Amino acid sequence: MLLSDYLREQGTYISMDCGGQGFCGKCGVLVNGEFKLACKTDISELSKDFKVSAVQRQDIVHVIEQPMFPEYVIAIDIGTTTVAALLADSSGGVIKRVMKTNSTRVFGADILSRINMCEKFSDTICEMLRADVLCCVNALTGTCVKKIMACGNTAVLSMFLNKNTYSLGKYPFDYDESLKSFNDVKIGGNTVTTAPCFGAFIGADSLFGALYCFSEYDIYCNKIYIDIGTNCEILLQEGGKVYAASTPAGPAFEGGNISCGMPYGDGAVTDIKYNLYQGFTLTSVGNEEPRGLCGSAVFSLMPILSLYFAKDGVLAEDVQLNDNITFTKEDFYNVLLAKAALRAGIDALTQDIAVDKVYIAGNFLWNDEKDTVLENIFAVGILPRSFRDKVTIVGNASIASALSMAMGKRYQSEMTEITLAKNQVFCENFIKHITI
Fold this sequence. Notes:
Strand order of the largest sheet: 4-7-6-5-8-10-9
Largest sheet: 7 strands, mixed
Order of helices and strands: HEEEEEEEHEHEEHEEEEEEHEEHEHEHEH
Oligomer: single chain
Strand content: 15-25%
Radius of gyration: 21 Å
Number of strands: 21
Helix content: 25-40%
Structural class: alpha/beta
Distance between the termini: 44 Å
Number of helices: 9
């Protein structure tokens, strides 16, 4: 039995961003004082009285807190990396927000790794997700509420509802029919309602996040919604119709698949500055000792590396950011691959279309200086320069749409899904964009 499986049986879950493949290094633990990878260590090779220490822990992060109101609803975004929730009064005014790391991340940073893990651990993954949701609900209020509405991508909601995810990981990528409708789950005395999904890779989070944003302007205005995350969704509204596509960028934009990456939380680096005389300056959450990079820090770092360290778009050697954090050349390449996938997807959907309004969503947008984050996104080359002055950063639009549905709003639209794997523009531009 692998040490990771043994620890899981004991109720201890450790991060395995690579899905147990042995290359991310984040399941490292101390066994009798010796560093080992839990995903590659067989307990039969250890002494009978072995002791494990220095196991990673994941705690809830409280973001905003104000006095309670008598009647309220809860909106939840069950993301691949984090679970975010908010409490609102009967008029929709936000009272309190909480966020915690998605506990199932220990089964892999990317969603495909977790889908594969569902073959053996589907019940455990379902229980962990429901425990995450219950944790957030209890952090918001200890009593029953009027309504709880949850959005998420198709895979995460399949796991949350304990539906078969096998077909999500295999071509032609299908999902359980029940997810096309609203579903109710009893959790801790409350009923949590999950919103419908549109496709295997167009979940309720991106679908309703986009429709929530699109509803603000004239229906015939050309608008694009880009949800930057582990699986990037792109939705374009043109002439009253909505076209949707997803591109597998991987978890690099959210600190996953990065050797020094981490989710947003105390010690997470959110912004990086550099000059030739002082070197790197790292800004971290809570001004704590920097522990790793979250998404916004990755965006701020890439243009710096491209300008001062990379040659011909290639990072020849690892870069030391401080005494504890090193950004490797493999990290640099992983971000370039993620950027190329997203930009090629945008190019494919907007070919020969004049876009009037651009919405950028994503949980990586924790940096208070959103204009700086946006400038970094342009500098990396994720967005075409033609989008400049048209962009609105909406942050977590998924949770905003969940709140609106908890308040009774319903959305309708004519949708068409675009498969990028068979799109010639996507394939050609993907190669072109593996650079800054």
